[in-house]
Design goal:
The chain has about 210 residues and is α/β, with parallel strands linked by helices. The chain folds into 2 domains: about 5-15 and about 90-210, Rossmann fold, CATH 3.40.50.1000; about 15-85. It is about 45% helix and about 15% strand. It contains 10 helices and 8 strands. The protein has helices spanning about 15-30, 40-45, 55-60, 65-85, 95-105, 115-125, 135-140, 145-155, 165-175, 205-210, and strands spanning about 5, 15, 90, 105-110, 130-135, 160-165, 180-185, 200. Strand 6, helix 9 and strand 7 form a beta-alpha-beta unit. It starts with a strand and ends with a helix. The relative contact order is 0.18.
Length: about 210
């Protein structure tokens, strides 16, 4: 019986493409003035679920190590600043569904986002009371699978399901030993061979699926 739900953030609860796009564009403009490099929102959507250091690997590979490291640092700083000014947009049904789920399940977040993004999400939309805990790459510098395991240990989570939108989420769940519900409206696509707890096309579908567990 499912007792806890661990959510991914970007591509699952909200879409922060705009703020990440602004952060990357600002970093590229300030750090790579001498190079004809541009980034569009489609690039951002493709890279959203990766850690900053893994994003735009083709761009970083063309830079020397020092310049790439500097670009990553500036981008991370920009993202933390931009997300406060331009918060992500919630997916349809999140506002109505989270209060319902929080009455029956303990809710958590595990994301590859930068430090402060989860806190901005919680405070901007007044969701803090619905969640028992959270963890992200920006705080720990660990892979998502390891972060999920740390979250499970810290809060003595026993029977959880993860809700996410990418194959990276699925691999992380496999590593952490928990099942996954795939959202099909996010950034990623799922291979037909993966074994999922369920798939949803709309966030409110979680209520019916989890009521059956």
């Amino acid at each position: 019986m499912i007792k806890e739900i661990i959510f991914d953030l970007d591509g699952t609860l909200w879409d922060s493409t705009e703020s990440v796009f602004l952060a990357w564009n600002k970093a590229v403009t300030s750090e790579l003035k001498d190079q004809n490099i541009s980034i569009n929102k489609n690039d951002i959507r493709f890279e959203m679920e990766k850690k900053t250091a893994d994003s735009f690997s083709s761009l970083l590979s063309s830079l020397d190590k020092e310049k790439a490291s500097r670009l990553i640092k500036v981008c991370e700083q920009n993202q933390s600043e931009k997300i406060k000014k331009v918060p992500g947009k919630l997916y349809p049904g999140v506002v109505e569904t989270l209060p319902i789920l929080s009455k029956s399940f303990k809710l958590y977040i595990a994301s590859n986002c930068q430090k402060g993004c989860i806190e901005t999400f919680l405070s901007h939309y007044n969701f803090r009371d619905f969640f028992k805990g959270w963890i992200c790459f920006g705080d720990t510098l660990l892979e998502k699978g390891e972060n999920i395991k740390q979250l499970i240990d810290k809060f003595s989570i026993k029977n959880a399901v993860y809700v996410g939108d990418t194959m990276n989420d699925y691999s992380s769940c496999q590593e952490a030993g928990i099942p996954m519900i795939a959202v099909l409206y996010g950034f990623g696509k799922f291979e037909n061979s993966v074994e999922l707890f369920a798939k949803i096309k709309k966030f409110p579908e979680l209520i019916e699926i989890l009521d059956k567990t």
